Amino acid sequence: MASSLELIDGQSWREFTQSGIAVLMLGKTDCEACARWTDELTAYLAGDAIAPGVRFGKMLLDQKGLTDFKREHASWLKEVDVLPFNVIFRDGQVIKTFAGSGIERLTNRLSHVLAGLDTQGPEVSKPLLKRLNSCKNPSSLPLYHPAGLTHFPASLLQRSTRAPQPYPPPHRSKRAAAGLSPKKHSSISESC
User: Fold this and answer.
1) What φ, ψ does residue 156 adopt, rounded to 5°?
2) Which of 59, 67, 104, 166 could hold 8 in an S-S bridge, CB 3.0 to 4.6 Å?
3) How confident is the model at residue 39 (pLDDT cuts 50, 70, 90)?
4) In percent, how much of the chain has pLDDT > 70?
5) Cα separations in angstroms, 66 against 8, 70, 74, 172
6) Hey, how many other C-beta atoms are within 10 angstroms of the C-beta on 72?
7) Residue 136, helix vs strand vs coil
8) Are 43 and 5 a contacting pair, CB within 8 Å?
9) How far apart are alpha carbons 53 and 22 in whole angstroms?
């Protein structure tokens, strides 16, 4: 049975993303790469090699009425700098994301999600989490998984592609900022 590419708007996005496994393609109306990916995806969906129960949708980010979607997903949406951008949801949770297009890239990620091998979502194996949590230097672990995955979420490995951010300056009281010694509290015993 062939699927179709649903047009997702401000009224339908929540129901769409929470309906089992859903693939959402984000684009804009004036994006040529988005139009090409839409054509490629539509042709793919016209075939019969689609996993049953997976929904496919397209959201145009420059359309009105998406304020709630943008607010709810601001944590990852603010990092999107390339369109088209694809998001695989499972029951409302972001499981996989990737920028650009490509049926092979999509089917590869989708097959991992359908097999339960996704690592961006909550289903990281318990033995792997135990090993990562017990390791003093998680970045020294080899990047492999018994199921064959070769990548893990940066939060588990404590690595980041971002430059380290400086710590905020420590809070200083007005007395300390003025060069005065801190007040002694009468409730604290001198013998402590």
Assistant:
1) -75, -35
2) 59
3) very high
4) 58
5) 10, 6, 12, 42
6) 13
7) coil
8) no
9) 9
CA–CA gap between residue 121 and residue 93 (Å, rounded) = 7
Residue 23 · residue 55 · CB < 8 Å: yes
Q: How many residues does the chain have?
A: 192
User: Count of CB atoms within 10 A of residue 94's CB?
Assistant: 17
**pLDDT band per the 50, 70, 90 thresholds, residue 28:** very high
Between 159 and 91, the higher pLDDT residue: 91
Q: What is the pLDDT of residue 160?
A: 43
Residues of the chain by 3-state class (helix, strand, coil), percent to 5: 30, 15, 50
| 181 within 8 A of 175, measured Cβ to Cβ | yes
